[in-house]
């Protein structure tokens, strides 16, 4: 379904469940930081990045997300793709192996992650460029990329910055693809949190997964964030689902584009 609409003003206080979130849903949110967002827990942060890569490979997330991204540039012969919040490079690696001519810019805001990616195979890949980049300030001219993809990362940003990702992603790329954790209905969300809770103090990945779940945006929140960024951003919500397991999530998929660029290209 495609949504467009008017801007809302008080975005920073919008609940993660969206402007229409229920009383219970509004209790299931946090502004607490994940290890991944902190500068004082480097060891745990690295453990989470390694786990994300391992789980992504084991459950096929990297390849699955790469196929979703490539579907969106199927009509572009040699697509230029920007990966934001790459973490470990797994998705970019899959993009490069699945598409013979795609040029991929692999980025993350976290310098240590970028250095680790650059030191590996992607650092030498002839069709990859590895760079530090903030998804809220994309260092590229308007429309430079055919696609920007931000996987399992959008929930890290509080509302005002998340809206900025919509603005920047649809400015720098023809399409912005956001793949993120789904936000289940409140009763199921509680069940998921209770199942995760025992591992939270023991396993860094579970700690971050628990916080991620509380920070995940609902479909109505995603639409409100895009509207806040610019009412001319079109948002297509593709999936997500209530019955997700923490290990095999059915992701929430959002494709956004700035309508002005489509009109400009047509004329
Ligand atoms: C949960 S990890 C996801 C990593 C990888 N995309 C995946 O799917 O496994 C979130 C990533 O988003 C990055 N991140 C957080 N805020 C960001 C921002 N403002 N711009 C770019 N990346 C950001 C973090 O450094 C981290 O690598």
TrEMBL record:
Naturally occurring in which organism (per UniProt): Mycobacterium noviomagense
Segments forming domain Methyltransferase: 81-171
InterPro entries xref list: Methyltransf_25, SAM-dependent_MTases_sf
Organism lineage string: Bacteria, Bacillati, Actinomycetota, Actinomycetes, Mycobacteriales
Gene3D superfamilies to which the protein is assigned, alphabetical: Vaccinia Virus protein VP39
UniProt name for this protein: Methyltransferase domain-containing protein
UniProt xrefs under Pfam families: Methyltransf_25
């Amino acid at each position: 379904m495609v949504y467009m609409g008017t801007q809302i003003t008080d975005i920073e206080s919008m609940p993660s469940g969206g402007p229409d979130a229920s009383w219970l849903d509004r209790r299931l949110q946090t502004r607490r930081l994940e290890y991944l967002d902190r500068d004082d827990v480097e060891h745990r942060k690295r453990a989470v990045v390694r786990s994300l890569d391992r789980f992504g490979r084991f459950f096929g997330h990297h390849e699955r997300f790469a196929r979703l991204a490539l579907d969106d540039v199927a009509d572009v012969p040699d697509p230029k793709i920007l990966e934001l919040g790459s973490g470990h490079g797994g998705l970019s690696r899959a993009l490069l192996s699945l598409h013979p001519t795609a040029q991929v810019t692999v980025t993350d805001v976290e310098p240590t992650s970028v250095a680790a990616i650059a030191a590996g195979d992607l650092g030498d890949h002839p069709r990859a460029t590895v760079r530090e980049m903030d998804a809220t300030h994309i260092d590229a001219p308007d429309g430079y990329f055919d696609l920007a993809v931000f996987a399992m990362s959008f929930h890290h940003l509080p509302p005002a910055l998340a809206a900025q990702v919509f603005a920047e992603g649809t400015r720098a790329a023809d399409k912005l693809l956001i793949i993120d954790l789904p936000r289940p209905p409140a009763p199921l969300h509680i069940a998921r949190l209770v199942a995760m809770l025992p591992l939270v103090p023991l396993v860094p990945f579970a700690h971050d997964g628990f916080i991620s779940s509380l920070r995940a945006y609902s479909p109505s929140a995603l639409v409100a964030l895009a509207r806040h960024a610019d009412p001319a951003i079109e948002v297509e919500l593709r999936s997500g689902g209530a019955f997700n397991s923490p290990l095999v999530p059915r992701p929430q998929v959002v494709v956004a584009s700035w309508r002005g660029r489509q009109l400009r290209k047509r004329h």
